[in-house]
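Before relying on records like the one below, remember that each one covers exactly one chain. Contacts with other chains, cofactors or solvent are not represented anywhere in the record.
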Amino acid sequence: FELTRTLFERKLELSIGGRMAEAIREGNGSTSLYGVPVRRLAGESKVSRYNPKFSATWRYTRDHSLYAAASQGFRYGGANGNPTAGIEPGVPQTFDSDSLWNYEIGLRNEWFDKTLRLDVTGFFIDWKNLQIQQISVSQQNYVDNVGGAEIRGVESMLRWSPPEEWPLLPAGLTLSLGASYIDARITADFDSSDGPVKAHTRLPLTPYIQASGGISWIGSVGSWLLAAGVTDAYYGDRYNQLADAILLPAYHSVGATLTLSNPTMRSMPQINLSGTNILDTPAQNFGFAATVGQNN
């Protein structure tokens, strides 16, 4: 549900809401050796959650606003289905649900008849019992719970749509630039299958810096509508996992989209084409450390 109320001539907007969820899970499984079951597993779990959400927006001018929000979320727990779960040291048979509180404060600014917009948001995430993907000594994937994590960051987005009357640029053109800084670390010591991990270790696959730039155009050719765009995304260096960590290098990825549609035709045809990493740029997202290390 969500309730919203406006005050002070609609300059202040207050909102409160929430989501109720309940899940019942049943599981049965077995581990076999040469076709003969050697271990049977069975279990049932029931989880009920209510996740509240609060927000406030202050529009102090027609083109400028300030907002703040707080919301809670969670993920269900489950069972590790690999054959070594509950047998291999450090690999649990099940993992628990996790939950978080997300706090945000941001600014939205628009200029020149809303053709130029800048959004800036700062955020803090307090994550409890974080579920995290791990790789065991026997090279089996499994999920475990870290005691907690804190994520601090800021993100921004700048978008510019030139006025249609500009003679040198086509109408429907939009340019965008975005960037974010994220510092994500666990808050408690953690015993993984690869060894102990100290508190304040960086979460895996979370670069400090991410950025993107794009150009898009929406227009028409006769009765057909055409939308095209190209983006370039940058991902900074990041660690592959919590323990036995190696630093994965930064990389770029270029993507493109093209949509052609005709709403005037009876069948309203539409063709969508999209491509990711169209320049075939290599990116390393996995690796093994030659020596034991830890993220800093």
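The mean pLDDT is 88.
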